[in-house]
Amino acid sequence: MIAFNRSPVTANSNKYIHEALLKKTSGDGAFTKKCAEWIENACETPRALLTTSGSHALDMAAKLCTLETGDEVIMSSFTFSSTANAFVGCGAKIVFVDIRPDTMNIDENLIEEAITDRTRVIVPMHYAGVACEMGQTTDIAQRHKLRVVEDAAHAILSEYKGKPLGSLGDYGCLSFHETKNFSMGEGGAILFSNLESIPTAEIIREKGTDRSRFFRGEVDKYSWVDWGSSYLPGEINAACLWSQLEIADEITSRRLQIWDMYYEALSTLKEKGAIELPSIPETCAQNGHMFYIKVADNNEQIRLIDFLKSKGVSAVFHYIPLHSSRAGQLFGRFHGNDCYTTRESQRLIRLPLWYGLMDDEVNTVTEMVRAYYEQG
Asked: Helices 359-374 and 248-271 meet at what angle, rounded to 10?
C-alpha cells in the first residue's frame, strides 16, 4: 500500500532525540530555542513560541484576542474543528462564509457583509498552503478594527506577495502534526506581529505562571499570576522537529517536485474535463503541502477513493464542512449562501504526498487515477 502520509525522518532524527533524552526532556531547552529561532527567521516574525499542537496555538491566539461571550468570529466552514474550537472556547459565535472554489479558501469578497457590531476577529485559513487574499482581508480588518488570526497550519514557508504566511495577521498559528510538512508528532507554534502580547502569551503557555521571567532572571521566584495551561512541548518533540527544520529547503523542494509530477501527469485528464487540478494565484508561492484533484461529484469521489484503495493507493477526502456538523450548528451560523463549500468538499480527493515518497510511487498513483477514467 502506498501510504497517504508518513512523517519525515532525517539523518539526524535519532541522534537529536537521543541527545534530548540525555540532556533535558522538559520544554524550553536547546532544541526548542533552535526551532523558535528558525521559525522567527523563516517566517519573518519578531517572536515565535513553540506549542504542544497547532490547536493550542489557536487556543492561545483566541485567548489573546480577549473575546467576550457573544462576540463573533468570521471564518470559512471548510477547515478543521480546531479553527473554530479555539474561539468557541472563549464564548464566541462562529460566522461561516462561503469559499472560493479555485483555492478552497475563504471568499474575501464575502467577509465584509458578514461583519456585525459583535464581530471581533477574522480567521483566514490558508488551505493546502495556498494563501488567502490577505491584502483585502487585512484592509477590511483595519477599517473595522478587527483582529486577524491566520490559521497557517498548512502554510509554513508559503508566501503571499513575497511575505511569509503566518506573519501577516495579528497572530499566526502553525501546525507540526504528523501530516504537515515538518512534524514533531503533535506540535505547533504561535507567531506574533509585535511583542506587545508576548508577556501574556508566556504566562498562558506556562500554566499561568511567570516562569519564563524567572528563567530570564527578571524575578527572583515565579508564581501563579493568571489563567494558563500547559502549552509548552517537550524537548524530545522539539529535537525531532529540529532534525527537519535544519534541512527544510530540501524537504520543501522534494514536496514541490512531487506536486509538479502529479500536476504534469494528470494534466491530460484535466484537459479532457475529467478532473480539476489545484489553482495557485499569481500572488502566492506554495509549499507543496498537499496535492488534490476534484472529480465530478460525491459519488465519483467515493468510487475513485475505493478504486485507488483496491489498487494499493491510500487517497482520502478532506473536511466535512463545519457548518453542517452538530457542533457547527450549535456554535455557529452560515452567513449568505453555501454555493461552493459543500459542493467542492464533496469533489475533492487528496493524493499521497510526503517527503520520502519515491518517483515510482508517484507514477503508480497517477497511473491508477488514469486507469480509473480509462476503464469506461
From this structure: 20
Q: Is 79 domain-assigned? A: yes
**Alpha-carbon distance values, 261 to 3, 52, 70, 355 (Å):** 17, 34, 47, 14
Which amino acid type is present at position 73?
V
Q: Which domain range does residue 182 map to?
A: 13-245
pLDDT of residue 376: 64
Residue 320 in grid coordinates: 466535512
Is 42 part of any domain? yes
CB neighbours of residue 256 within 10 Å: 15
127 found inside a domain:
yes
pTM of this structure: 0.96
What are the tens digits of pLDDT across the range 131-187?
A: 999 999 999 999 999 999 999 999 999 999 999 999 999 999 999 999 999 999 999
Predicted confidence (pLDDT) per residue in 41-98, tens digit: 999 999 999 999 999 999 999 999 999 999 999 999 999 999 999 999 999 999 999 9
Q: How far is CA 93 from CA 73, 226, 365, in A?
A: 6, 25, 42
Angstrom CA distances, 283 to 32, 159, 290, stand at 32, 8, 18
* Element spanning 332, H or E: strand 332-334
Q: What is the CA radius of gyration of the chain?
A: 21
